[in-house]
Amino acid sequence: MGPLGHVLVTGAAGFIGSQLCAALVARGWSVRGLDAFNDFYDPLAKRRNVEHLLESPAFDLLPADLATAALDEVLDDVDAVAHLAGEPGVSTSWGPAFPRYVDRNVLATQRLLEAVCSRGLRRFVFASSSSVYGAGNDVLRARGEPRPTSPYGVTKLAGEALVGSYAYSFGLPAVSLRYFSVYGPRQRPDMAAHRFIEALLDGRPPTVFGDGTQVRDYTYVGDVVDATMRALTADLPPAAVLDIASASPVDVRTLLATLRELMSADDVPVTSCEARRGDVPRTAGDISMAQEWLGWSPTVDLRTGLARQIEWHRGLREQWSAPHHLTDRPLAAATGD
């Protein structure tokens, strides 16, 4: 049993969620992981993320959707929740896709909050996003005025507001963590570092959206996991909202230049195309509250983190060149069903 006993992680097979589950198990927690294995990207990649955890008696995997799952059963004996499930992506959140973002980022969050608000949880952690700030985020943060510039950001801000509402009205001990441009091993295929690395490994020109001057606060996944774990146990003010960032933002051109240097791919050309709707010129987190309330600071610099991600990409290619290694058993079998 860990410090809180039994923790539910939603989005457990995703980029961040799977690494959070592994870190919690390694620290002695009992973890119930829930994931819908939807098709935002290859469900087999998500399955691979948690394959190594399936043999652990401290990890229980439930392949289920928050929109329809029997939450009383999901939450049985759970002391804390890390809610990472949701529909990601700024550029894909426009037009007819928006109802899916509402369903997965707002309605599912509200349904989960309803189910936990009377259960006496020790902590509810909500994974939010820097996308709630929108453009000109430094000024807006100082004024306390997030103004998202994409439908995705709107749904994440709505999720934060719901978490705050349940904290205020039901005394739910909740915290929202605004993750900034997370990168590292297992990163989603739609994200910049993943796309750049795969292109460079193939010898293809990586594609940059816009002119590459956009600044991002790239934050290593291990640091994000550490902050999330600390948030499960830290003494926090009600409905706290904290930035989780590297506090060392760089532009996209620097990200790509670092990758090309690390991969000895300076001779591979770069292409560019139009900037995507909803992209903002700059994101930069203020980690002072996370330092104060969580005792947390990022420890992995961009160069080190990117080297680890490159190693993961190369290792993955080696695995897929060998005979298929994923188990053929149904995921439900790992839950004891």
Task: Characterise this structure.
The chain has 337 residues and is of the alpha/beta class. The protein has a single domain, classed as 3-Layer(aba) Sandwich (Rossmann fold). Helix content is 39%, strand content 15%. The chain is built from eleven helices and 13 strands. The protein has helices spanning 15-26, 43-51, 71-74, 98-116, 137-143, 151-170, 192-202, 221-233, 252-262, 288-294, 302-321, and strands at 6-10, 30-35, 59-63, 80-83, 123-129, 174-179, 182-183, 207-209, 215-216, 219-220, 240-244, 250-251, 271-273. The strands form four sheets. The chain has a seven-stranded parallel sheet, sandwiched between helices. Helix 4 (98-116) runs parallel beside helix 6 (151-170) and helix 7 packs parallel to helix 9. It is globular and about 60 Å long. The two termini are 22 Å apart. Residues 324-337 have low confidence and may be disordered.
Radius of gyration: 19 Å
CATH architecture label: 3-Layer(aba) Sandwich
Topology as a string of helices (H) and strands (E): EHEHEHEHEHHEEHEEEHEEHEHH
Main sheet: which strands, in order across? 3-2-1-4-5-6-11
Q: What is the CATH superfamily classification?
A: NAD(P)-binding Rossmann-like Domain
The figure for the number of domains is 1
What structural class results from the helix and strand content?
alpha/beta
Number of strands: 13
| CATH domain fold name | Rossmann fold
Q: Beta-sheet strand percentage?
A: 15-25%
Q: Multimeric state of these chains?
A: single chain
Helix-residue proportion: 25-40%
